[in-house]
UniProtKB/TrEMBL annotation:
SMART domains: AAA
Keywords: ATP-binding, Nucleotide-binding, Transport
GO terms, molecular function: ATP binding; ATP hydrolysis activity
CDD domains in UniProt: ABC_NrtD_SsuB_transporters (cd03293)
Membrane-spanning parts: none
PANTHER family: ABC TRANSPORTER ATP-BINDING PROTEIN, TAURINE IMPORT ATP-BINDING PROTEIN-RELATED
Domain ABC transporter: 4-231
Official protein name in the record: ABC transporter ATP-binding protein
Amino acid sequence: MGFLTLNDIHHTYFTKTSATPALRNINIDIKEGEFVSFLGPSGCGKTTLLSIIAGLIQPARGCAMLDGKNTGKTDSGIGYMLQQDYLFPWKTIEENILIGPKINGTLNHAIKTETLALLDKMELRNVLTSYPKQLSGGMRQRVALVRTLATNPKLLLLDEPFSALDYQTKLKLENLVSSTFKTFNKTAILVTHDIGEAIAMSNRVLLFSQRPGKIHKIFDVPENLRLLSPFEARHHPAYNELFQVIWKELESLEPEE
């Protein structure tokens, strides 16, 4: 059994007049410290699966187990980072990043020092007394990452956190996130529509089929790419080779007109 195990997960959305299958027969084992990307057509259930892993949705069948515990029935130590930063606009950046430990009662001098050091690593120490509206989108996402890491989660779920950023900022943030996760040996799952991002940041890329979402194919990212930063990986010949393979496989999933 992996650090994170998804066992025979099925899910269907019901309304008064219809039933829409979202996920079918999802079985995955993810190792501790692994970075995995979910890639696939729009509407294939990637975000639904992320919500099930987070314990926000109970699957119709199956379960998600993190470190031997059902994620839907316990405080399993999962951090969730979204496309929108959801910082509290009336609180300073320092107050925002410390809100998690404060709420769960773990805030002390050591945790505060570690969190401020992480903010410094993100090149944001000078914004402690600022408010979110005074920061750029990329800066707010870095703050959101620090806030997520402040509670020391076992698993991080990233739902297209870079998609609203300009390309240069996106590449810089990919590098920061990747190096930070490697430093702290964090396990992470990234939902993305960007093939390049998935390859540059991941150990494995899981390609989902059209709705109802199933795992169509799993791609292992070569070790020579995994040892590089995301920016460096994008310039390696192996990156282009894998990009073309995944691109063609993704195209094959598109419905014929």
